[in-house]
Amino acid sequence: MKQLFIFALGLASPLHVAADPASYDAQIIRSLPHEGAPFTQGLELVDHSRLIETSGAYPEGTESFIRMIDLKDGSVLQTTKSGLAGRFAEDVAPTATGWLVATYHDGKAVRFNADLSVESEVDYPIEEGWGLCRDSQEDRYFATNGTEFLMELDSETLALKRVAPVTCMGYKVPGLNELEFVADFNGKGPTVFGNLYKTRFVLGIDPSTFECTSVFDLEGFGEQDPQEEYGFHVANGIAYLPGSKTFLVTGKNWQNMFEISLEAAGNTHREKLRKKLRHFASQTASFLATGMRSQIPALPSTDVRGKLRVTRREPERAIAPDESHSPEA
Ligand SMILES: *[C@@H]1O[C@H](CO)[C@@H](O)[C@H](O)[C@H]1NC(C)=O
């Protein structure tokens, strides 16, 4: 009956019956300043003690950069715009010896050495660069381009090796943005995590089937902008901290980064997450051809921009950064 009703409304119906993803409740352990509140496009852990972050050139008048951050207190250790001038930097992923930064529309990626000096510029096979992460076990990259497709790239040549849609509860899901590879998530094996553009969902994807196996949301983290559904101020940036099995998350122009732990969601939260995710997936699936195509939102009117909804979610417990929660070496 419900399916018929949804169908009659013109919304897409699931491709097949698929298992619901495991739902998690994200608890804030500590909050760190997000210096300069940049337009975050990539976030990765470096040597258990630092973060590497990329920012796109937004709003107009700003430039893309890559920077190194101290995980203890969020302070910026090093920043460079080298190799990114006139470009829109996207996600960053490790290489064997340094970093690889995707760009939005240039068909190029930039290789950086570990010290953030530019090593080279390489062809990037994806017309519109979005997310990028490295599976160091299987030695391959995964990338997205704003559509429902997840792409596997050769670690050396970056050649496309596999292209298939991400599915969640049987629906194709477009808009996976910043990506993070977790070698073993919660004993469930390798998982590709990604921020879902224009939402506060983070999906965990099985890299062999491209089906979503985990979901949590960042609802109520920091300030929430009513324009997020149009692409402003969206959650973007996930770094996994294997030592403490926690995640560092932030968003575009967010004032803070948050270290979070995940716990299995209780019944109420699980049902809420599923309902919202199903609604999002069924709706976006019906306008795949036009939805989720731009990383760069058009400027809304100032009266709307001025109104930040202040639904700040504070850390559950205050833990000094260098005490019990510093990641293990
Ligand atoms: C995204 O990638 C898919 C699969 O490779 C391709 O068909 C599509 O044209 C690409 N779209 C954009 C906007 O880059």
TrEMBL record:
GO MF annotations, alphabetized: glutaminyl-peptide cyclotransferase activity
Domain of life: Eukaryota
Basic and acidic residues composition bias: residue spans: 311-329
Coiled coil location: none
Signal peptide from the UniProt entry: 1-19
Positions of the UniProt region annotated as Disordered: 308-329
Xref: SUPFAM superfamilies: YVTN repeat-like/Quinoprotein amine dehydrogenase
Keywords (A to Z) from UniProt: Signal
InterPro entries: QCT, Quino_amine_DH_bsu
Family annotation (Pfam families): Glu_cyclase_2
Protein name (record): QCT protein
Organism listed in the record: Symbiodinium natans
